[in-house]
Amino acid sequence: MNKVTQTLDGWYTLHDFRSINWNSWKKLSIKDRQLDLNELRSCLKQWGSLEEQKLGSTAIYTIVGQKADFYFLHMRDTLEELNELENKFNKTSFADHTTPVYSYLSVVELSNYITKSSDSDPLQNPEIIGGHFIC
């Protein structure tokens, strides 16, 4: 009889879909827009740094359609890290010009099939293949 494959809870994933409030964004001066974008870039830089350290992963996708304008996909080891990340972004001036359209939390389930074909520990390797669009 075959053995049941052991699975492990992996990384927590926050799926955050947002739309941009174009009316409020257009009312900003060019200087204020630049300040807001710099604050966003600071968040992106911090998230990229965590990815380089293999402490998480983040991807940003453009949404085609009417429901949202973009989608953040964040993977972290703990729910506390995701909560901190979400709160930090929500406190940015850029976030003031976005509306959360939809979000949900998921947990990546890992099986030991991965570890049989590789010496790497899947819990230590959260990677998202980035791109501009997602289906």
From TrEMBL:
Pathway the protein contributes to? Porphyrin-containing compound metabolism
Q: Does the keyword Transmembrane apply?
A: no
The cofactor required is: Fe-coproporphyrin III
> Which domain of life does this protein belong to?
Bacteria
Catalytic reactions of this protein: Fe-coproporphyrin III + 2 H2O2 + 2 H(+) = heme b + 2 CO2 + 4 H2O
Q: Write down the top EC class of this protein.
A: oxidoreductase
Q: Iron: is it a keyword of this entry? A: yes
Look up the EC number in the record and give it. 1.3.98.5
Q: Which InterPro entries match?
A: ChdC/CLD (IPR010644), Dimeric_a/b-barrel (IPR011008)
Tell me the keywords, alphabetical order.
Heme, Iron, Metal-binding
Concerning PANTHER family, the annotation shows: COPROHEME DECARBOXYLASE, HEME-DEPENDENT PEROXIDASE YWFI-RELATED
Tell me what this protein is called: Coproheme decarboxylase
